[in-house]
Amino acid sequence: MAKVKIQGHASGTGILTVTAPNTSTDRTITLPDATGTLATTADVFDPDGAVTINDTGADVDFRVESNNVANMLFVDGGNDMVLIGTDTPISFDAFGSEISVQIQGAGTAPYTGLGIVQNSNDGDAAVLILGKSRGTSVGSTTIVQDGDDCGRIEFQGMDGTDLETCASIFGEVDGTPGSGDMPGRLSFRTTADGADSATERLRITSDGRGLSQFTAKVWCKFNGTGTPAIDDSHNCSSLTDNGTGDYTLNFTNNMANTNYVKFADAKDVNHNSALIILHSTDTFAVGSMQLLCQNALGTALDDTNMHALVFGD
Amino acid sequence: MHIIYPSTNKDATSPNYGEATLAQLIPAPKFLAQLAVLDEDGNDTVTLENKLIHIANKDLPTGTPYEITDEDTSDRSFRNAWEYVAGADEQTSADLSAEDLEKYNMKENL
């Protein structure tokens, strides 16, 4: 077997150089057949092997250039960042420039963005996961705590000087977590006109309630005839049948205060004049509301189709 | 099943206002479902009776005697004259735990 070996000299290098000829067509190294290989050593790049760049951890950068972008991929060795489209990190509201992966672009061809597509013959989809542990090392399994942010999505706009938050969505732990137990809530926040920080406007709790100024805190549809029955409800733990036409709706979660709005209504084909009025004492309790069902003459009666609704804090 | 307990007529417009009567506590199906604790096979490990006890502790003042019953109470004739008679299965509502109070946004037990 013919063999050419280039042996590096103690005082030199073992580099095989093919000098440029007058034309580029002959500037090749030809292997004898399809099984031919370029022998490698630890000091030589192997396209089929594991590759480590900057194995010594020096403060140096790694950069890949594309046709139109000088920093299509830029690994900032000094700041431990991966940048796409730039070699200069941008400063974000609330985080500064300490965001470890950044994509920056200009223009619309291509759009600056992140597209994730899964192709599979099932119902699964692409996923974006934001995770959190209380540990301080990569791979930690230290449990999170009630109230911890597990992830947040920030929407920030440039105010002429720097980026400011205009809206955000937080995913937070909502309750005490444990093994196989991770209660969560979503918090939707927007920034008011004239402000530069977002305020929570809607919270979806771990038990499925929507807390806001514009969502019902409690609602219930029930039948007060026979053995009273709750047809459907939200944030309602039980209904008390106090007597004829007299019910108390017990809230699962108390209202924050008694400055809430309550509404009740009844519709029954057998009692065209059925009317529900709230308790005459106008008592507002944080944990319940009393409903009295009377006909137009003020006589208490039970009804089949009754509704109650509460808005407030 | 539901809960019955002694009460007084709370309708100030009723001629029976303040008189002793029987009250029924009807659990909300969705709240019962919320109280479920599922095992690895998806089976609920909490009995209906235990869920009703929890509701009694939550929605009745502490110390209220009550019974869990599946008795048919659909005939509401003379409803305001119903009276609670203690039975052998009578229980008494207890305080909720501090954790439950916080969960239900309650500052104190009823």
Task: Describe what this molecule looks like in 3D.
The complex is a heterodimer of chains A (313) and B (110). Chain A has 313 residues and is mostly beta strands. Chain A is built from no helices and 17 strands. In chain A, strands 5-6-7-8-9 form a five-stranded antiparallel β-sheet, with no helix packed on it. In chain A, strands 1-2-3-4 form a four-stranded mixed β-sheet, with no helix packed on it. Chain A is elongated and about 110 Å long. By secondary structure, chain B is of the alpha+beta class. Chain B has helices spanning 29-34, 48-59, 98-103; strands at residues 2-8, 20-27, 65-69, 91-92. In chain B, 28% of the residues are buried. The interface between A and B is large, with 43 and 39 residues.
Oligomer: heterodimer
Average pLDDT rating of chain A: 85
Q: What is the molecular shape of chain B? A: globular
Question: Which structural class matches the secondary elements of chain B?
Answer: alpha+beta
Uncertain spans of chain A, ≥5 residues at pLDDT below 50? none
Estimate percent helicity of chain A.
under 10%
Helix content of chain B: 10-25%
Report the end-to-end length of chain B measured between terminal Cα atoms: 23 Å
Rg of chain B over CA atoms, rounded to whole Å, is 16 Å
For the largest beta-sheet of chain A, the strand count, sense and barrel status come to: 5 strands, antiparallel
> Helix count of chain B, per DSSP?
3
Spatial gap, N to C terminus of chain A: 87 Å
Specify the biggest β-sheet of chain B: 4 strands, antiparallel
- Give, in order, the helices and strands of chain B: EEHHEEH
Low-confidence stretches of chain B: none
Large-scale geometry of chain A: elongated
**Share of residues in strands of chain B:** 15-25%
Give, in spatial order, the strands making up the sheet with the most strands of chain A.
Answer: 5-6-7-8-9
Which structural category do the helix and sheet elements of chain A fall into?
mainly beta
Q: Could you give the order of the helices and strands of chain A?
A: EEEEEEEEEEEEEEEEE
